[in-house]
Amino acid sequence: MRAVVTAPICPLMSGPSYQCERADEALGGMTVEVLEDTGTAWRLVRTHYGYTGYAPEACLLFGEETAACWERREKKVVLQGTCDVLAAPDVAAWQVASLVRGDLVAPKGREQEGWRQVLLPGGQEGYLRGSFLGQYHTAPVYEDEEGMRSTLVDAALAYRGTHYRWGGKSPMGIDCSGLCSMAYLLCGVIIWRDAAIREGYPIRPIPRENMRPGDLLFFPGHVAMYLGDGRYIHATARAGDDGVVINSLRPGHAGYRADLAGSLTAVGSIF
């Protein structure tokens, strides 16, 4: 059986309890495969990118036909960091829901005076600014390498300043692999959610001297995206940074991190 994620952010825990570690987050509009009914308020699920975790039942709408119907709909992705869905096309209208970057909605009709009517995965309808939405990509957004690299970097930079959250993957809080995997996902590429190069996913190891913007830098238990000129963007829990920042591999640069520069284990690329 499958289900649709109806909450803007659905925690995926390592066990069926909020006392367990957060492994990941599924975002609104994603579909998941239900692997196990625990007999509690939690279900073991697997995301479309292959990650498993325990999700609260309250965040899910169950049913194979429900999931299939949602998947058939045209969808847009929220690109604004956070935004409200309103009951009417008026900034003073009541908020129906609050969404985050990466959530999916189904557009209804054409944009009018800057507003777009949308259907949410839980069945609610409302309005939000059309400029908050972007194309939902299920394949690489660009065929040419330079365009794809630039778009990947822009997608990662959009999270700059987001605070660190273990297992997070939204502007409400994000971790290192959440940042990198979301940047790729928004560009239509599914990579492994953790800080590792995994067989069956498109990231492959390349020589360090060949790294270019958009490639991934792997450290023990950590991953970052290379920006060029020795600099990289990553989500770090280090005191004083506490979130998505830009650092450098080069000693002469501001933001040089000797601990990371000296522990780079691999460089990965889809190109």
3D architecture notes:
The structure is a single chain. The protein is mainly β. The chain folds into 3 domains: about 1-70, SH3 type barrels (Roll), CATH 2.30.30; about 75-135, SH3 Domains (SH3 type barrels), CATH 2.30.30; about 145-270, endopeptidase fold (from Nostoc punctiforme). Helices cover about 15% and strands about 40% of the residues. It has helices at about 65-70, 145-155, 175-185, 260, and strands at about 1-5, 10-15, 20-25, 30-35, 40-45, 50-55, 60, 75-80, 80-85, 95-100, 105-110, 115-120, 125-130, 135, 170, 175, 205, 215-220, 220-230, 230-235, 245-250, 265-270. Helix 2 (about 145-155) packs across helix 3. The radius of gyration is 19 Å and the shape is globular. The two termini are about 35 Å apart. The mean pLDDT is about 100.
Low-confidence stretches: none
Proportion of residues in extended strands: 35-45%
Largest sheet, in brief, is: 6 strands, antiparallel
Q: Distance between the terminal alpha carbons, to the nearest Å?
A: 35 Å
Order of strands side by side in the largest beta sheet? 17-22-18-19-20-21
EC number: 3.4.22.-
Protein name: Dipeptidyl-peptidase 6
Family: Belongs to the peptidase C40 family.
GO molecular function, one term: cysteine-type peptidase activity
Keywords:
single chain, 271 residues, mainly beta, SH3 type barrels, endopeptidase fold (from Nostoc punctiforme), 3 domains, six-stranded antiparallel β-sheet, five-stranded antiparallel β-sheet, 22 strands, 14% helix, globular, Papain-like_cys_pep_sf, Dipeptidyl-peptidase 6, SH3_16, thiol protease, hydrolase
